[in-house]
Structure formats: structure tokens, C-alpha cells
Design a protein that fits this description.
Elements (H helix, E strand, L loop, with lengths): L6 E6 L4 E6 L2 H7 L2 H12 L13 E4 L13 E7 L6 E7 L2 H7 L4 E5 L6 E6 L2 E6 L8 H12 L4 E4 L2 H4 L7 E3 L3 E3 L4 H7 L2 E7 L9 H17 L3 H7 L4 H7 L21 H7 L2 E3 L9 E5 L5 E4 L1 H7 L8 H14 L3 H16 L12 H12 L4 H5 L3 H8 L9 E2 L2 E2 L9 H9 L12 H7 L6 H21 L4 H6 L4 H11 L5 H23 L13 H4 L14 H15 L9 H6 L3 H7 L7
Parallel strand pairs: 1-6, 7-12
Antiparallel strand pairs: 1-2, 3-4, 3-6, 4-5, 7-8, 9-12, 10-11, 13-14, 14-15, 16-17
Helix pairs in contact: 1-2, 2-19, 2-22, 7-21, 11-13, 12-14, 19-22, 19-24
This protein binds tungstopterin and iron/sulfur cluster.
């Protein structure tokens, strides 16, 4: 097998053993890599109902057939596990030198099983795999840990770490990688913490076998040149993802005061233009020539990297109107290893609960000191922070008194930074995202705003599915950053050529989309198996706030989602996907995708139509 190494490293932390598993070529052809590998392994190997924080859960790091090669933006890794935040399938995608080193060590993925009884880190150097004590490293922040690991093992390594939040089992702890890169929103860092796994360190020195190395090299150089020549390249390099901030304000989709509004009165103090003036440097993932990690100096004088989601959620959504303050909260989240999106959402939830006198902590909108203290209290699980560390859904269940109405989440995962009072297509994207409310699979909102945001049409459903196939399928399985395509218009046909040169496999884009559908159905089956007869359409509903509480400011004052029409979108979505009216894959759909085994297993838990 070329392109793929054909090997998965398995490390058992309970038994303190490891082994190398060879997998058949069909597995690679059917699932490609990344999310595809992770979803199928979790489906095949996890017992339904397993406690996500128990040793029986598995933590997966999965790469794709382009990882490690010098082609545009393939320096990314997928981290996945059963999510402790949602109880369903969870994953995330982060830039990391692990993408290069793990493949050079000879593996396409690694699966961490069991749990250590004392803190450990895994050290991989080609065929050598060690489980080392991390007792001296426990308690360090992610940046401190990264520095220390580089001192111990040199700079030529790939690293995945957790901070104190992962150690303390905060349900939305992320996995950190490099400075300014983070991934695994639905508690992938929490799963590492539950295994007492503080870090994974990899050094790989082997050559990755490619089908046609010369062609791959040439195509790689041409691809980088093409990225560089795109008309939007220069403006992208100025602000990166923060470019979208002013656009969100203009279009009333900027999350404001816990998603009550889509416009913030101080948005101009948080915009990409402000970032541009304060910027001190830029960095990013390996094998990328359009790096988007823009760094400013935060209130405490340290470097902090900003992205749009972070500023949307830790700025306007909690009433903060100073970019440096938002940057401080962003940096705290990075160092403690908390997801910025969920953090911004739980702080906003607390502010609103305080305003409504459900809690008597006196936390006001825009109170920077209170937000800092809450961030620490969440990380170390003190007082109210202990409740918020469970995420908004569980916090609302605990606090009661209708607070579920301002818990802004889907399936337990907090909504990322786009308000949907007046964007039904984007609401559908959040509702049907395979990990809970995340924008990564279908950022349909820009297309929707250009083509008619008020409508509830079948074309919108088709667009959501098209984007899910490309973003959630192609990019998450080949494991490459999607931003060259999204932001600059880098042609998708490049990936067809890269796959061919790396592996010898000639996949058309339609072949990729079939793989994407296969992956989506495995993930959906995973969720349904976990929830059994409690599964239903309610699982795909966006937050109730967008239906019941219209916008009160801005040009779209009075707008809100229409529940009946949203249900129609959902019905069309299920029909297009070949799922029944409960959102459960039909047997025929699974069989047509070569997933008869999944159908047989799933039918033990729910009746298939
Ligand atoms: C991603 C989510 C996002 S999406 C952001 S900002 W974005 C937040 N970033 C966080 C952060 O930073 N620190 C932190 N402590 N928590 C954070 N939580 C949030 O996590 C990220 C970029 C971005 S910036 C985006 S859109 C794109 N995402 C991609 C993706 O998902 N897949 C893919 N194939 N390519 C992508 N390219 C872009 O990557 P999650 P990163 Mg992130 C600091 O991981 O779990 O998917 O959540 O990975 O390396 O930081 O790059 O405006
Ligand atoms: Fe990483 Fe940004 Fe480059 Fe994508 S564009 S590979 S997220 S630095």
C-alpha cells in the first residue's frame, strides 16, 4: 500500500503495552483517513453506553493520506473519542507537527486505550514507544508543558498536550498543539485527562512511501504557488479568520449577550481592523503558506493568538468590548486547555442567570475580572465554576428554573459564533452537525445571506449537504485544512490529484462524497446507538431562543426562526440523506453505502425502517 502506511499504533495505558496493527486496504479505500478512520474504529470497538471518562473509551489521533507530505495545508490531525460533553461521537481538527512526525514514524493513526493510574505521557520515536511518567508535568499549563517537552526531547517533535482543565475533567477541555493551535471541542482533552495522559510526543524520521513521489513534489510546489497567487491572498494575510468579524456585525449574526442579539454596540473595538493595528506576529500550522494565527499582546503583556470564533464568543457574547481583554481570556483558555467557544457560552449563561437572579453571584455583562475569575474557577472546578465546567446543558439541568432556554447548545455542544435568528440554513447546519453545534461541517451562512436568508427552501438543504460532504467529509478524511478552498477558492480538483500521486488511487470528487456519506452514516449510527429509543428529531433542533425570542436591535429587529418551517427543512434533510422521520438511517441507505454490518448492529438498538 502506498500513500497510506497501512499501520495503526495501539497503546494500552492500563497494561502499559503497545502493538502495531496492520489494516486492510479496503478500510483505507472506504474511509480514507482522519474522521473516517476514527468514526469506524469507535463504532466497531466501543461498547454502547460506555462511560466516556472510563478506561473503555478510546482516544484516537488520526491522519490522512496527505499528512506529512509537502502539499498545501496538510499539517492537521483529527482527534476523536466518545464525547463526555454530548455522549455522542466527538472529534476536532488541529494543526500540529504530529501530522508530519506520526506519519514519518510509520503510522496513519494511533489509538489510546485503557487508563494509567498515575500521570503519564507517550513518547514515540519511530518504532520505539514509551509510556513515561508525567507526575512532574501534571498541573502545568499547555504552554509551560510544551516548553518543557521541547527541553526534554528537542525542538524536532510533534506534541499534543492537555492543560489543568483536561486534568480536572472539565467537559469541554481541548487538546492543544503548538502555540495557538487547539482542537477537539467536545471534550477530547477531557478524555485524555481521564486516561491520565498529559501529552503525546512524536518524532518520526522515516520516509513516507508515495506512489509517485516526483509528481507529488511537483504538484505540491504548484499548489503552494497557486495558493499564493489567489486574488484574495493579500487581504487574507492581514486578518485571517478575523476578517469575518465586521461582516458578522453588518449582517446581524455576531453573537451578542448570549445570542440574544446579532449586533454589538462596541463591535468596532473588537474588529479585524483593530487586530491588524495591534498585531505583533503571525504563525500557523506546518506546510501552510497562508498562515492565519495572528498574535497581539494581551492585557497581562503576553502573546495571544486570536481567531474569529474566540473573539466572537469571548467578546460580544459576554459583553466585553476591548480586544486585549478578549485576548487575555483567549490566552487563559489556551493555557488551561479549555475550548474558547464553550467557555464564552458558559460565561454568558452565568451572566444571564445572574441578571435573571437564578444565581446570586452578581456577574454582570462585560465584567472582565469576573470573566477571568470564572475561567479559573471552571478550570479548577470551584463553586459555580464546578457547575459551569459541565457545559451549558448540564448546568441548566442543575440550576433549573427554565435556564435551559438560555443554554445555547445542540446535543450538548455549545453553538459556535454565528447567530441564527435570521439564518434558517445555518440553524439546520448546527442542528445536523455530526458533533453537536459546530460550524465546521457546513458554514452555509455566507451563501445563505447572499442568496436569500429569509427562505426555508430545499435548495438550502441541498447546500448544507453539499458543504457537509466537502468540509465534513473530504477535508476531515483527507485531513487537510479547508481554508485554502473556503477563503481563497483553491480548486477541489487539487485533492483528486494529490490523492492519486500519494496513493495511486483515482478518486473523483463524487467518490469522495460517497465516502463522506458513508462516514456521516456511521457517525449518525453511533449517536443513535448511544441514545437508543430516546433518539428523535428533537436531537437536531437548534436552541429554543432563536424561535421564541426575536432580535430586538438592528436592521432585522423582530426576526426569529419559524419552528414549523424548520421542521420542514429537517424533513427534507432526512429524505435527502435516506434517513427516516426520526433522523435514523434506513437499512437500505446503509446497505447501499456498503454498511450492512452497521445496519445489523444498529437494528439491535432501534427498529430500522
Ligand atoms: C475548532 C474551533 C475553532 S474553529 C476555533 S477558532 W475557527 C476555536 N479555536 C480555539 C483556540 O484557538 N483555542 C482554544 N483554547 N479553543 C479553541 N476553540 C475553537 O475551536 C483552526 C483553524 C480554524 S480557526 C478554523 S475555523 C478551521 N477549522 C478547520 C477544521 O475544523 N477542519 C479542517 N480540515 N480545517 C480547518 N481549518 C481551520 O483551522 P476544532 P487549529 Mg481547531 C487557539 O479544532 O475542535 O475543530 O474546533 O484547529 O489548528 O487551531 O486551527 O475561526
Ligand atoms: Fe493552519 Fe490557518 Fe494555515 Fe489552515 S490556514 S493550515 S488553520 S495556519
Amino acid at each position: 500500500m502506498k500513500g497510506w502506511t497501512g499501520k495503526i499504533l495501539r497503546v494500552d495505558l492500563t497494561k502499559k503495552t503497545h502493538k502495531v496493527q496492520e489494516y486492510p486496504k479496503e478500510f483505507a479505500l472506504n474511509f480514507i483517513g482522519g474522521r473516517g478512520f476514527a468514526a469506524k474504529i469507535l463504532w466497531d470497538e466501543l461498547k454502547p453506553g460506555v462511560d466516556p471518562l472510563s478506561p473503555e473509551n478510546k482516544f484516537i489521533v488520526a491522519l490522512g493520506p496527505l499528512s506529512g507530505f509537502a502539499v498545501p495545508n496538510a499539517g492537521k490531525v483529527v482527534v476523536a473519542a466518545k464525547s463526555p460533553l454530548t455522549g455522542g461521537y466527538g472529534d476536532g481538527n488541529t494543526g500540529s507537527f504530529v501530522a508530519v512526525h506520526l506519519r514519518k514514524a510509520g503510522y496513519d493513526a494511533m489509538v489510546v486505550e485503557g487508563a494509567a493510574d498515575k500521570p503519564v505521557y507517550i513518547y514515540i520515536e519511530d518504532d520505539k514507544v514509551e509510556i513515561n511518567s508525567a507526575e512532574d508535568l501534571w498541573g502545568l499549563t499547555t504552554n509551560e508543558l510544551h516548553d518543557k517537552l521541547e527541553k526534554m526531547h528537542g525542538k524536532s517533535i510533534g506534541v499534543l498536550t492537555i492543560g489543568p482543565a483536561g486534568e480536572n475533567l472539565v467537559k469541554f477541555a481541548i487538546v492543544r498543539s503548538m502555540y495557538g493551535r487547539a482542537g477537539g471541542r467536545p471534550g477530547m482533552g477531557t478524555v485524555m485527562g481521564s486516561k491520565k495522559l498529559k501529552a503525546i510526543v512524536v518524532r518520526g524520521t522515516k520516509e513516507i512511501p508515495a506512489e509517485d513521489p516526483d509528481e507529488l513534489k511537483r504538484l505540491g510546489i504548484d499548489g503552494f504557488k497557486d495558493v499564493r497567487s489567489k486574488p484574495l491572498y493579500e487581504s487574507w494575510m492581514k486578518q485571517g479568520t478575523m476578517m469575518v468579524h465586521s461582516w458578522c456585525q453588518e449582517n446581524s449574526v455576531l453573537p451578542t449577550y448570549n445570542f440574544r442579539e446579532g449586533q454589538f454596540e462596541h463591535a468596532d473595538k473588537l474588529s479585524g481592523d483593530v487586530l491588524e493595528k495591534l498585531k505583533v506576529k503571525t504563525y500557523g500550522c506546518p506546510n501552510c503558506n497562508m498562515q492565519c494565527g495572528h498574535v497581539i499582546i494581551e492585557v497581562g503583556g503576553k502573546e495571544a493568538e486570536l481567531d474569529y470564533e474566540n473573539i466572537g464568543m469571548l467578546g460580544s457574547n459576554i459583553g466585553i468590548s476591548d480586544l486585549k481583554q478578549a485576548a487575555t481570556l483567549n490566552l487563559m483558555a489556551d493555557e488551561y486547555g479549555l475550548d474558547t467557544i464553550s467557555l464564552g457560552s458558559v460565561i454568558a449563561f452565568a451572566m444571564e442567570s445572574s441578571e435573571k437572579k437564578i444565581i446570586d453571584d452578581g456577574i454582570e455583562w462585560g465584567d472582565f475580572e469576573a470573566a477571568k475569575k470564572l475561567t479559573e474557577d471552571i478550570t479548577y472546578r470551584r463553586g459555580l465554576g464546578d457547575i459551569l465546567a459541565e457545559g451549558t446543558k448540564r448546568a441548566a439541568e442543575k440550576l433549573g428554573k427554565d435556564s435551559i432556554n438560555w443554554a445555547i447548545q445542540v446535543k450538548g455542544l455549545e453553538v459556535s459564533a454565528y447567530d441564527c435568528h435570521y439564518s434558517p440554513g445555518m440553524a439546520l447546519s448546527y442542528g445536523t452537525s455530526p458533533i453537536g453545534a459546530h460550524h465546521k461541517d457546513a458554514w452555509v451562512i455566507s451563501w445563505e445571506i447572499q442568496t436569500g436568508r429569509e427562505s426555508y427552501t430545499i435548495e438550502k438543504v441541498d447546500k448544507v449537504i453539499e458543504l457537509q460532504r466537502i468540509r465534513g467529509g473530504l477535508f476531515e478524511s483527507i485531513v487537510s485544512c479547508r481554508l485554502p478552498w473556503v477563503e481563497l477558492g483553491f480548486d477541489l480538483e487539487w485533492y483528486v490529484k494529490y490523492l492519486k500521486a500519494a496513493t495511486g488511487v483515482s478518486y473523483t470528487l463524487d467518490d469522495f462524497y460517497k465516502v463522506a456519506d458513508r462516514i456521516y452514516n456511521v457517525i449518525r449510527a453511533f449517536w443513535v446507538r448511544e441514545y437508543g429509543n430516546n433518539w428523535g428529531r428533537h436531537m437536531d433542533m437548534p436552541p429554543v431562543r432563536w424561535f421564541k425570542e426575536p432580535l430586538t436591535v438592528g436592521p432585522f429587529k423582530g426576526k426569529h426562526l419559524d419552528e414549523e418551517k424548520y421542521q420542514q427543512l429537517l424533513t427534507w434533510y432526512y429524505e435527502r440523506r435516506g434517513w427516516d422521520e426520526r433522523g435514523i438511517p434506513k437499512r437500505e441507505t446503509l446497505v447501499n453505502l456498503g454498511l450492512s454490518d452497521v445496519a445489523d448492529e444498529l437494528s439491535k438498538y432501534v427498529a430500522l425502517r
